[in-house]
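DM from R.C. (forwarded with permission)

"hey, sorry to bug you on a friday — could you get me a structure for this? deadline for the figure draft is monday and I only need the backbone to look sensible"
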Amino acid sequence: MAMQEPSIGASTAGTHLFPTYRRRDVVFVRGEGAWLEAADGRRYLDFGSGVAVNALGHAHPHLVAALTAQAEKLWHVSNLYRVDGQERLADRLCAATFADRVFFTNSGAEAVECAIKLARRYHWTAGAPERTRLITFEGAFHGRTLATIAAGGQAKYLEGFGTPLEGFDQVPFGDLEAVEAAIGPLTAGILLEPVQGEGGVRVFPGEMLRTLRALCDARGLLLVLDEVQTGVGRTGHLFAHERAGISPDIMAIAKGIGGGFPLGACLATERVAAAMGPGTHGSTFGGNPLAMAVGSAVLDIVLEPGFLTGVQLAANRLRQGLAALADQFPRLVAEVRGEGLLIGLKLNVPNTDLIDSAFAEGLLAVAAGDNVVRLLPPLIIGEPDIEAGLARLEAALARLDRKDG
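My reply, with the result:
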């Protein structure tokens, strides 16, 4: 049965906040697993996961226990001292990935900023200080700082903030000839998301990632991956680049690694990370004991044998159901795309229409570019909640079909 349709306009509450979001008029007060409960008692199935952040759902008991235990001991000491949790989490990340070194941040944008600085600094220490430019791809989203909006190159994020930061050469998505043409004596590397999330859930094929890796090797460039949204199991692999059998030189991560707690990291090989000596970069809060406890607890779960296989099985079931819905509503749904539990519905109607209709049915989803709706359920999603999500999405599509038919 459809839920009572709530207001979908911007709330008039919170008038002392910057008006940077068109917030939906709902306040969530608690969550468990894939479900959220609003202040008025309504329950919503969360297929947005805080934009791919709540990888293990809401109030996961292992994360709650880790955070609570750490909160009773120590919150912050700064990076002027050794932090045991940092060393432990860095060891685990390096053991599970290509990396030899880790710098902890509070967010994805900070992790990408670190990656950009590291790519430039590496060439500076190698005797080529002129090599500061990164090749990026149209549709990319790397964050909201001045450097990361320049890297993403999207006009809607650049407008009104002055001349974009220099150092980025943008090429069409997936255009290898354009990449080669853009390489010059000032090029430091190539920066990309293995799957563009904000850009419309557009996937770089494995062969293309292998070609870019080979190109970087041949031309002395660094391959820099933004796995802020795709990492920590979201695509059914620990990190999305693994499906292509390659390794980057630098990788930015965030979102899922904190399971809902603000946490990001920049990972790199020893050869590259050596360029960052004392005083070259820093963070007041990055790597604080609370974040480290939660990040390590996330890895406890994600690295369990069989966990990623379970993500892949859940993704296959959800994709099957979505394909059936695309066949059922061809006027509305043009394509199902993505990898793992990073799934996009390319629509023939405005994506906001479906998001509003799904919300009315008690299902949360997220907009993306290219007129796509993102479905990002928690990685722990089970069969009953997948079926409930598909049922609510079917009702949302039927509601929209009746409205526009």
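R.C.: lifesaver. Residues 62-302 form a domain with the Aspartate Aminotransferase; domain 2 fold (CATH 3.40.640.10).
me: no worries. The chain has two domains: 62-302, 305-381+389-405.
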